[in-house]
Amino acid sequence: MHMNKLKILMLGPSESGKTTIANYLSESINIEEAGPPRPTQGVRIVEFELPNINVNGKNTNIDIELWDCSGDHRFESCWPALRVGVQGAILVCSPTTTQVATRELELLYNYFVSQPKLSAKQCVLFYNCTNDSDDIESLTLSSTFSKVSQVAINLKSGGNRLKIDFSNYITSVLQAINRYA
């Protein structure tokens, strides 16, 4: 079974750590090498292969096209183009962005998940914890997110856990796509 690339958008407020997560998942950096956040201009596409994903009982390799999208609203005019052919959305926020995050995530979810008619299974929320005392419970989201998986991630202490969470997420995207294919 061979599939085309999976187009996954990574979205969220500026400085929530999207690029670091994208780089880590695609294995282009070690976390120790991650410098201070630099704003992404528009979008950056990271392509990599995710091995051994279980699809309908068979292990397969999936090509991922991870679109690391800027959180800067200057680039909002690009949103319609970003949304074309989207198969999944990863929303990212961090303790430093929780004040703006609630409204921002709602807007992004509406535009990139609800409007293109993705299911909640095709979306995941990564709460990017920068230290161990950060708690996902401090994130108060609307009922819109009641069906969306919300995962606290900590790259410094739990990078491998993030890879597992990401693989699980990709599996749920594939299941959702196959159901509607």
From TrEMBL:
<keyword id="KW-0342">GTP-binding</keyword>
<protein>
    <recommendedName>
        <fullName>Intraflagellar transport protein 22 homolog</fullName>
    </recommendedName>
</protein>
<dbReference type="Pfam" id="PF08477">
    <property type="entry name" value="Roc"/>
</dbReference>
<dbReference type="GO" id="GO:0005525">
    <property type="term" value="F:GTP binding"/>
</dbReference>
<keyword id="KW-0547">Nucleotide-binding</keyword>
<dbReference type="InterPro" id="IPR027417">
    <property type="entry name" value="P-loop_NTPase"/>
</dbReference>
